[in-house]
Amino acid sequence: MTPDDRRPDVDDDAPASPALLALAAALHDAAADPSRRTDVLLATPARLAAKLGRRLSSRERAWLDDVLESARAVCRGLNAAEEALATAGAGLGAARVGLLAVDRRGFVAHANDTAARLLPVTPGTRSDMIARAAAALGAPDVHGDAVFREPVSSTRILEFRRVSGSEPAGWACAVPALTLSVTVLDTSPSPNAATIAAALGVTPAEANLCAELVRGLTVAAAAARLGIRMPTARSQLRSVFAKTETRRQAELMALLACLPVDLD
Fold it and tell me: Rounded to an integer, what distance in angstroms lies between the CA atom of residue 118 and that of residue 219?
């Protein structure tokens, strides 16, 4: 594990008291532990200050409020998600749905066995993919039904959804406030860009976009994966519509489904 892969305790602008850092880490650990979550939900800055044996400055209290807000969001999210999985019946949900408690930078505080197997991740490590998912799903204005998808092979796509939480304003700590679920979308083998370009007479750039769309990505996700801007992706898609005499994305996907698939 490299230094960048280790979970930091706080951001650089956090109060520099070792006792406060240790307290934040303890809250972080308790939030991920079902038997200790009640302690986090009942905690107050005054009670935590009593544990430290001293009064807190206004800056320390404000920072600790952020820590508590984040930790409570994790507790509520994990409790709700685990309750939902427990009622899914015969362990079906627990066997197929991964649960993650993460912070805004992609550091993992908690991962159930399924999440650890799918990604793989362990508590205390960071993943670029999780950071992208957290950025896409963690903003306060993101709707609850939003999804983030990322291909991991030609036949598998990981789909992330926000179970609870969002990035609070002024979030100044690394204790996570975002709970994500992750599942695998198994996709059939799909035509590659070269096949699409030859069959449909589109440009290589347009073929690359089509190849991502037929794998199940949205236009926005495909644009991000290809490193192009959304206006460029929309322009390319309109060009493909014109060249293939299709009018909607569903019609284009049906046409692409008829092409020879890439089995590599």
Answer: 24
Domain boundaries, the chain: 3-186, 193-256
Rounded Cα distance between 58 and 260, Å, is: 65
- Reading the block at residue 97, the tokens are 């749905």
- Is the model's pLDDT at 85 over the cut of 60? no
Detail the DSSP E strand segments found in 50-123.
98-102, 108-111
Fold annotation for 193-256: Arc Repressor Mutant, subunit A (1.10.10)
This model's pTM is above 0.85 = no
Q: Confidence class of residue 7 from pLDDT cuts 50, 70 and 90?
A: very low
Q: How many Cβ atoms are within 10 Å of 173's Cβ, its own excluded?
A: 28
Alpha-carbon dihedral 226, 232, 235, 240, rounded to 10 degrees = -20
